[in-house]
Amino acid sequence: MRTNFYNEMYTAEQSVRAHYAAFADWLQSRPAGWLEQKRGEADALFHRLGITFAVYGEEQGTERLIPFDIVPRVLTAAEWATLAQGLEQRVRALNAFIGDVYGAQRILAEGIVPADVILTNAQFRPEMLGVRVPGNTYTHIAGIDIVRAGAGEFYVLEDNLRVPSGVSYMLEDRRMMMRLFPDLFSIYSVAPVEHYPELLLDNLRSVAPAGINDPTVVLLTPGRFNSAYFEHAFLAQQMGIELVEGQDLFVRDDYVYMRTTRGPQRVDVIYRRIDDDFLDPLAFRADSALGVPGLLTAYRAGHVNITNAVGTGIADDKSIYPYVPEMIEFYLSERPILNNVPTWILRRDADRDYVLANLKDLVVKEVHGAGGYGMLIGPASSKAQIEEFRARIIAHPERYIAQPTLALSACPTFVQQGLAPRHIDLRPFVLSGREVRIVPGGLTRVALPEGSLVVNSSQGGGTKDTWVLEA
Amino acid sequence: MRLQIQHRTTYRYTSPASYSIQLLKLTPRREGTQRALWWRLGTPGRCVEQLDAFGNQSHLLTLEGAHDEVVLSVDGVVETDDAFDGRLPVEQGLSPLVFLTPTPLTGSSSAIEALARRVFDGAAVDETVARRLMQCVTEAVRFSPGTTTVTDSAIDVIARGQGVCQDQTHVAIAACRSAGVPARYVSGYLLSEDANPAMHAWMDLWSQAEGCWLSCDVTQRALAGASLVRLAVGRDYLDACPVRGMRRGGGSEELEVRVAVHEATDTAVESMRSRQIQAGQQ
Amino acid sequence: MLSRTADHIYWLGRYVERAETLARALDVQYRLSLLPQPAQAIAAGWMDTLHELGLLQEFRERFGDVDAERPRQFLAFDRQSPGSIYGCLRIARENARAVRGAITAEMWETLNATWLELRSLSMKRQEPDAFALFIDWVKHRSQLFRGVLMSTMLRDEGYSFMRMGMSLERGDGTARILGARLASASGGAATGGFYQWSVLLRAMSAFENYRKLYRDAVVPERVAELLVLSDSDPRSLRRSVDDLYANLQVVANQRSRETERRAGEFNALLRFGQAESVATGRLREYLDDCVERLRNIDRRISSDFLVAVETVA
What we know:
Chain B is of the alpha+beta class. Chain B has helices at residues 110-119, 127-140, 154-160, 165-178, 237-240, 266-281; strands spanning 2-24, 34-42, 47-51, 57-80, 142-143, 162-163, 183-190, 199-207, 212-217, 222-223, 228-234, 243-249, 253-263. Chain C is 74% helix and 0% strand. The chains are: A alpha+beta, B alpha+beta, C mainly alpha. Chains in contact: A-B, A-C, B-C.
């Protein structure tokens, strides 16, 4: 079978790639029906441990599993070394960009990013102008979505700098693999990931407000009806910190306290898993019941730190994405290590003309949208859909960007008919504090329906353990 | 002109509240066209002061322990420039572009876009356009006291066709933004010897041609002048309103507001000055 | 510990215990309803039980008159009422889910499995003989949960709040079940006194205890003495309040002094109480006083520990 996408395990000539050879041999030597049995075991374990994605109603306590695939996604030491370097570089530049946007605004003055793209963006928070954050760190936890295209080269598809999720699946997938296939870990020397909560806690403690030696760190969740609640509870438990809801915190003067059975206790660092809009009903959405009234005042006074910082959304907006390579050169004076997907900015006349002439081959994305809405996938759309989108672009070109359709790489995946290639991406988690640290690998998401390119868990995506081989 | 302001706000709760927090924007902005000669903000507990994103002096008041009322009092004298004609001196700080982004209260509808077309029509923004804006908005939204529930959006207001000063202001701002003209909300006091409410809302719109903000009192269809005292500006009511608060417990609430804004007599100013000196000595 | 976490744990303990109390109250009334007697008398017994559990009004509003059959289904499986076994276990699980990180995995799994099994039980049609089995099942699940709690949970504040919830609820339940029996017994139709009171003892798992302690016939005065003042029966009010007081002292904070004093006073009252104080003529008043004291302590626990803790200047 000839394909136009990169297969992680096989070459175009259908021979097994070197780093998958031992796995292929191991697989060959398993008896028939064995894989099915192991997959059943994995499902049962996930259910019992309650590692679920909550779809929670009043009476019907439905908790769905995110499908876990037992074939690992393997990266060589060399591949990872480049990726890790590139990720660190990218996150450093994005962090510098956010600091600049809310500080001196040099990049606007230099005209590298047009001022109106920033200042009129709904993700720009004037509340952050001139605010000093500990260590000048904004993007404490970043999830960078990486894909691999036709010839095997890596591209950054998207930066997630607000409240990236999924790291609990990375940890649980590894735990599951080690439990189900311990022998594989003696054949392969796989870089460990289990220390992630340790690193995260250390990172959060390192960004406490000045003068706090033994900071109290809490994880702020929207509550148990949130779809990612399992992850919030899991991380809080692994780090040994309190899992709090907005109602557990309150502001006195301009300090934040939590209500405990022994009286108010000061809180120094809030690892929040709720969006900016809901953080403080006195500053942002007035109808938010999830936040803490007065929190922004305490934050701006420097008496509490919030991770990720308020206003990081300005750097992961689709309208900003095309400028990231230039940011890297501007702030770090380095050549970008990771590729950006080539992107046409439709507010530019030349780009718009090209895109309008080639809509059937391109992906057009709305810049303020998120998660697969307001998007046109040219090759998969009817003529009528394309024409409808054309009209929208002409009316408001500044709201759109366009990219070529990428052939995402595929990895053998256990499906009904046995092993078959399915498209995947990769979300490594990059921690920034005193230094930048990344656990090797990340979360590999897989689009389970044949031919599908959508890896989101809300739309039928699954996950795989991600192995980075030690050199 | 010197304006003497006395403003007392009382919240009464039907059962005791255990915690209250209020963000107050009740201090005149430090701007070229006005200065406070004397200003005192009285609150039932300690306040922390902060300059907010828009350069407004804000105070955060937190109250713990059972309480069934909160009384806020403001006393002061503000001097405004008699020569002020609505053109605000150029200020450092926030770019006018920030005031181009619509908010939930200042979103656009076809009615608002149509109004914006009548007003702007590609013309450079100047005093004439500003007057046309005020004219069109007050025709589209008739002044009608007691018709607002504060959270009404510009879209709702223009559909209803009537409202109070903050509603008219929101519609004017929404129209400006839909036409690509930066506009911001202003909250403050209005000299009112008659029965007019002394708490007021108006707007600033950005004139690229003149390189400055033009302050427009939409409700009165006039460029702002010396009879207005500016407390706070923002993207909409929520950014600039004098009191934004929340509480735990307290049952339902009764609100009483008393505001008086007069032209200050020399004796009044003198007595203020001496009180200020005394306060300074304490 | 976060006040909200303590609140969930406290109520988790209360609702698990309340489910068991309901099972025991149902047990008494169900066994008695099997005795040969007019349907009216059975209905009157259910009425006393519902009244004592504080559910009579809700029952009447939803179903009208109390008959001999409906209350049983209502107390066991009603889906709307937080006062049924079904409702209690649902709320218990909700509370556990909210604080999964603060209880052990085994506790969560026990409660979750109980809930899943109850849901499937409640969907099946109940055969008459299955009801006694159901009552036993509820008691077993509650006992299992208590065992898992005792053998896995860290002895920290959370443990004490759980114990406080459980002991307060148990004391309250004992007082109410005894009160219901007293009402029926004094209602005139109290024939077969022995049988009435021995059914109560059996439902409270106290029949053998009674025999060992008193080596005598079952008489109402002694039953009351055992269930209220006994130092050795684990479901007595005395033991429940003793446990409540002990755990309250563990978590005491700057605001809770008055609550401790009241719990201590109540504890002493039971500890040094004389048999005459629970004599049949006075028992009603005595039980009402106990229930009121428990209600007051519960309210005070809430405001001292579980909701907004105010500053101490």
